[in-house]
Amino acid sequence: MLDVVSFVPRAVAQGVPLLYGSTGEIITEKSGNLNLGIPGVMYVGAICGVIGSFLYERSLDGAQINAALGLLIPMLCCLIGSLLMGLLYCFLTVTLRANQNVTGLAMTTFGVGFGNFFGGSLIKLTGAQVPSIALSATSNLFRKSLPFAAKLGWFGKVFLSYGFLAYIAFAVALVASYVLEHTRVGLQLRAVGEDPATADAAGINITRYKYIATCLGCMIAGLGGLYYVMDYANGVWSNDAFGDRGWLALALVIFTIWRPKVSAVASVLFGGLYILYVFIPSGPAVKELYKMLPYVVTIIVLVLSSLRNQRENQPPESLGLPYFREER
Amino acid sequence: MAERQLAVRMRGITKEFAGKVVANKDVDLDIYRGEVLALLGENGSGKTTLMNMLSGIYFPDSGTIEIDGKKVTIASPKDAFDHGIGMIHQHFKLVNVFTAAENIVLGLKEEGKFDLAAASERIRQICDAYGFDVDPSQKVYDMSVSQKQTVEIVKLLYRGADILILDEPTAVLTPQETDKLFAVLRNMRDDGKAIIIITHKLHEVQDISDRVAVLRKGEYVGEMITAETTTQEMTNMMVGRQVSLNIDRPPVEMDYRMERIRVKNLTVKNHEGITKLDNVSFTAYTGEILGIAGISGSGQKELLEAIAGLQPVESGSIEYVVDATGEVEEVEQLIGMDPIKIAQMGVVLSFVPEDRLGMGLVASMDLTDNMMLRSFRDGASPFTDRKAPRHLAELVVDELEVNTPGVSTPVRRLSGGNVQKVLVGREIAAAPTVLLSAYAVRGLDVNSSYLIYDLLNRQKGNGVAVVYVGEDLDVLLELCDRILVLCGGKVSGIVDGRTTNKNEVGLMMTKLGGGEA
User: Fold this and answer.
1) Which chain B residue has its CA at the smallest distance from A325's CA?
2) A200 interaction partners in chain B (CB closer than 8 Å)
3) Helix (H) or strand (E) holding B473
C-alpha cells in the first residue's frame, strides 16, 4: 500500500520546480512568446544562485552565516541570471524577430552548458574528491520549516514541512492566475498573445508587454532552479543533476491548458508520477518507464482537449509568431 | 448644409513600402464633421494605406495631419484614439476567445477597478442610443460577420471616437445587413460625427455618402459632391479614362453547345452532419456561363467542392461528359475520384474565400512559386521546372495589370485585389474545360472586376463550361446565361439570365420556388 504521508511531501518537493517553471512559462506564452529556453533558464537560475552562495560561504571563512544575506545573495543572483536570459530571448525574438523555436532551443543548450561550465569550475575550486559542491549552510536556511510543524503529526508533514520557496511557488501561481483572469493587465496580456494586431490597434504596447511578461516569466522559472539546488538537493550541485525537469515544466503548461492555478495541483501530480517508481516495487528497467508517465498524461490531455475542440482550451492563437506592425 | 466644420486636414502625405512600392504620394484630403466621405479608388490605389496613417497603424514618410486646426503627430493607434479617430479594418481587430465586452474595453485605461459589469451596462446604453444589437457576454467566435462588425463600431463609440473610418464594411454583409449598417451610419452622421467609408460598390457610394474623394495609383485626383455626380463619372475619374459600365454577354452558340457536367440528386452533409446540399440536380453546358445565386452559406461552396472532388458526398451522382459527339456518349463519374485526376480532366476550381488567401495561394511564397502549385507535378524529371511558371506569372501580371514590384514578391505583400487577380489568372491559364469560380470579384474594384468578367466571357467563347458563383445580383443578371438559385441547400429554380429580373431571383433566394410574396 502507498504510504501517503511520506509520498505527498516528496511529490510536492518534486513538483515545486515544475510549478515555478510552468507558471513562468504560462505568463510568457500568454504574451505569445513560446520560450523553449525554459530548461536552460532554470539551469542558469540554479547555477547563478550556487555561484552567489558559494562565494558568500567562502568569504565567511568559518564564521557564522548571516541568515538574511545567506538567503538574499543566492536569490538575487538567481533572479539576475534568469532576467538576463529573458532579456536575451526577448532581444532576439521580439526586437530582432528571430525564430522563437530556434532561439529557445539554443538558449536551453546554452543554459545547460553555462551551468555545467561554471559548476565544473566551482568543483575544481573546492578541490573536492566528489564531482559536486555542497552548500549546506545556505541550504539549511532555505530548508527551514516552521518550528512547530514537526509536532503536528501527519498534518505537519503533509502541509508544513517545506521551505519557504515552496509556499512562494504556490502563491505566485495563484496570483498569476488571478491577474490573468481578473485584471486589466491580464486581459491586455492575453490579447497580446491571442492577436497582437488587435491589441496594437487597441493601443497596447506589444513590445513592452512581451518583454515584461517574458522576463518576469524567466525570473519565476529561475527560482524553480534555485529551489531544486538549495532545497530539494540539500544544497548539493552536481552537473546535469537537474535532468529533464525543465521539459517537464513545459509539458505541464500544456497539461494545465495554460492555467497557473491548475498547475498548482497538477505540478504535485506530475511530481508524484515522477517518483512513483520509488514507492512501487519495480526493477531498474521499469523505473524509466514510470518516469515517462508525466509525458504520457500530457499527450492524453492534448488528445482530449483537441477532441473537445473548445476555443478556450487552445494555446494562445499567435503563440510562436513574431509581430511586426507594418507587416502585410 | 449648415456651416461645415473641418475635422481633419491631411497635406502632402507620402508613404513608401520597403523603398519600392509607393502607396501614397503627396495626398491632400479634408474631412468634415456631420458628413459621410466616400474614399474611392482602384485596388492598390492606397486608400487603406492612407487611412491606416490616420489611425496610427502606419507612419507617413512625409506630410502633415491637422485635427481641428491643430497639427498633430499620430505615431500609434493610441495617439489616434486620443484624437477621437477610430478605424474599422477590413479584417476585424477582435480577439476571438474574448467576449464582446472584453474586446470593447481592451486597451482602455479607465479609472478605478476593472469592472466588466459596469462596462457592459455602458455598452447597452450605446446600443440603445444608436439601435445596435450586441450581447456583451457573447464570445466573438460565436458571432456572425455582421455581429462582429457591430462590436467594432460599438468599440469605437465606447472610446468616444467622433471620426470613424470604415474599410470596405459592406464586403461581407448581406444586402439587408448593409441597409441596417447604413441606417446606423446616418444616425451617427446626424449626430455630428465625421465618417469615412472605403468601398468599391458605386451604388453604395451614391446611397450613403455626401462627398466622394478619388485616389488613383496613390495620388489624390479630386473630389465631387455625390449628389452632383454619376457612377460613370466616378468610374472614369478612378480609372483615369473612359470605361464602359456594361457587362458583355455574347450569345451562346447553340450549334456547339453540349452537356458537360450532369449533377443528379446530389446530397452533401458537412462534418457536423448538417445537410448543406439537398437533392440538387442540374446540367452545365459548354460555352455557357451558369450563374449560381443564393444567400451566402446556401451550399455554394459545398457544390463547387463536390464537383472538384474536395467534398465527401452523401448520395447522388456527378457525371463529366467527356465526349458526346460519337455514337455512344462517353461519361466519367466524378464522385469518388481523386481531386488531382479531376483537375487533370480540366475541371478547375478558383474559390476566393472571405479572407482571400485561405484557399489556393500560399501567402509567403512569391508569384512564380504560387503558379508552380498547379504545375509542379508535370514532367517526369525529379527537378521542377521554374521557367514556365515564371513566364506564366509575368503573363498574368501583364494581362491582368497586377500591381506588384515583381514576380518574386511574396503574395502577402500584394493588396487584396491583386492577390485575387493572381489566383483567377492562374486558374484560367490552366486551359480548363470546366471553370468553377466563386466570388472571383470579391473586393475587386470596378476596373479589375470588368477584366475578370471579360476573362470569363473569353473562356465561354472557347467552349468552356463556366460556373460563376456571385454575390452581386446585378452582375449575375448581366453576365450569366442561366442562373441556378439555391435556397437553403435546395435548388429553388433555374432561370434564363436574359429574361429574368432581380425581383424574381431575390424571391427565389429567400423562398423555395419563389412565387408571389
Assistant:
1) B57
2) 57, 77
3) helix B473-479
Number of H helices, E strands in chain B: 16, 20
Q: What is the largest CA-CA distance in chain A?
A: 66
- From chain B, pick out residues whose CB is under 8 angstroms from the CB of A325: 57
In order of B48, B102, B425, the CA distances from B57 in angstroms are 10, 22, 31
Q: Which residue of B has its CA nearest to A315?
A: B97
For chain B, say whether A326 makes contact (Cβ under 8 Å): yes
Task: Give me the sign of the Cα torsion angle B401, B405, B408, B411.
Answer: negative
Which long-range CB contacts under 8 A does A162-167 form with residues at least 24 apart? Answer: A162/A9, A162/A12, A162/A13, A162/A16, A162/A231, A163/A227, A163/A230, A163/A231, A165/A16, A165/A223, A165/A226, A165/A227, A165/A230, A165/A231, A166/A12, A166/A13, A166/A16, A166/A227, A166/A231
Q: Does B2 touch chain A (CB under 8 A)?
A: no
**Which range has highest mean pLDDT (B62-71, B317-326, B341-350)?**
B62-71
Query: Which residues on chain B are in Cβ contact (under 8 Å) with A188?
Result: 106-107
| CA B357 – CA B362 distance, rounded (Å) | 7
**Three cell numbers, residue A112:** 545547460
Domain span holding position B35: 1-83+194-199+208-242
Q: Report the number of distinct structural domains present in chain A.
A: 1
B428 touches B462 (CB < 8 A): no
ipTM of predicted complex? 0.84
Chain B interface includes A201 (CB < 8 A): yes
Please report, for the domain that includes residue B44, its CATH number. Answer: 3.40.50.300
- A312 interfaces chain B, CB cutoff of 8 Å: yes
Is B18 at the interface with chain A, CB within 8 A? no
Top-ranked range on mean pLDDT: pick from A90-94, B274-278, B335-339, B431-435 = A90-94
Q: Which domain holds residue A105?
A: 4-313
Q: How far is CA B436 from CA B306, B440, B476, B477, in A?
A: 11, 10, 15, 18
How far is Cα A108 from Cα A179, in angstroms, rounded to an integer? 28
Is pLDDT above 50 for B1?
no
Indicate the number of domains in chain B.
2
Which triple of cell numbers denotes residue B251? 450569345
Structural domain includes residue B43: yes
Query: What is the C-alpha to C-alpha distance for residues B104 and A202, in angstroms, rounded to an integer?
Result: 9
Which tens digits make up the pLDDT trace of B90-122?
778 899 999 999 999 988 877 777 888 889 999
In chain A, which residue's Cα lies nearest the Cα of B102? A187
